[in-house]
């Protein structure tokens, strides 16, 4: 019935990534052939297929054919579930989302190698503006991303009450209305990330 978000939009054009070698792991882009692997990892088959078919890019970290970490990216006009925000990456940008590492494989730096591979993919497409969102309450994640070279470039507040969603853009890097009010999520039939 009620939810509240305070979200920072972060951005960079170049990241400082400390990438290690992972000889016991396979690191590569996901394809539709990975649907069973991702289903075993807990991702709904329909969601995985939809993301791949719409052109979202996924980097997988696998150990013994098991997905232990991944990172997704998308381009275009999107609805960001974290924060209830409408965001457009523009022609030269991409949005990083759904970065995950299974608990027993955490603190190995997989986020760095996933981001490195995402950047390589998007740079080949001449996309240099990197975006993401982080909850204002997730101080640890903010510090980690700041160390990588991200900076805050926007701030938004979102409230949902009885199905009515209001998002207020306190500051934003692109021209937008100060507030969006909508009754359904996602609004305007936008793609969700």
Task: Summarize the structure in words.
- It is built from 4 helices and 12 strands; from the N terminus they run E-E-H-H-E-E-E-E-E-H-E-H-E-E-E-E.
- The model has no long low-confidence stretch (mean pLDDT 95).
- Helix 3 links the parallel strand 7 (93-101) and strand 8.
- By secondary structure, the chain is of the alpha+beta class.
Salient structural properties:
single chain; 193 residues; alpha+beta; 9-stranded mixed beta sheet; 3-stranded mixed beta sheet; 12 strands
Poorly predicted regions: none
What's the overall geometry?
globular
What Rg, in angstroms, do the CA atoms define? 17 Å
Through-space gap between termini: 22 Å
What order do the SSEs take from the amino end to the carboxyl end, as H and E?
EEHHEEEEEHEHEEEE
Mean pLDDT: 95
Portion in strands = 35-45%
Please state how the strands of the largest beta sheet are arranged side by side.
2-3-4-7-8-1-9-10-11
Beta strands, count: 12
Percent range of helical residues: 10-25%
Largest sheet: 9 strands, mixed
Structural class: alpha+beta
Number of helices: 4
Task: Kindly summarize this structure in a few lines.
It contains four helices and twelve strands.
Helices and strands in order:
Blueprint: E1 2-12, E2 26-29, H1 35-40, H2 45-54, E3 57-63, E4 66-74, E5 77-80, E6 85-88, E7 93-101, H3 110-124, E8 129-135, H4 139-148, E9 151-161, E10 164-171, E11 179-182, E12 191-192
Parallel strand pairs: 5-12, 7-8
Antiparallel strand pairs: 1-8, 1-9, 2-3, 3-4, 4-7, 5-6, 9-10, 10-11
């Amino acid at each position: 019935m009620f939810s509240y978000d305070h979200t920072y939009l972060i951005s960079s054009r170049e990241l400082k990534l400390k990438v290690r070698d992972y000889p016991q792991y396979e690191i590569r882009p996901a394809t539709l052939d990975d649907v069973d692997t991702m289903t075993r990892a807990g991702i709904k088959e329909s969601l995985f297929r939809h993301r791949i078919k719409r052109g979202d890019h996924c980097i997988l970290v696998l150990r013994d054919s098991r997905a232990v970490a991944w990172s997704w990216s998308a381009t275009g006009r999107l609805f960001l579930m974290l924060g209830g925000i409408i965001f457009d990456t523009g022609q030269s940008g991409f949005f990083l989302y759904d970065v995950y590492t299974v608990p027993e494989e955490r603190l190995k730096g997989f986020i760095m190698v996933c981001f490195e591979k995402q950047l390589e993919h998007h740079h080949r497409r001449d996309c240099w503006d990197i975006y993401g969102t982080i909850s204002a309450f997730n101080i640890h994640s903010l510090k980690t991303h700041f160390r990588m070279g991200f900076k805050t470039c926007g701030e938004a507040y979102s409230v949902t009450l009885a199905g009515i969603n209001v998002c207020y853009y306190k500051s934003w890097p692109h021209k937008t209305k100060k507030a969006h009010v909508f009754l359904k999520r996602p609004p305007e039939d936008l793609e969700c990330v």
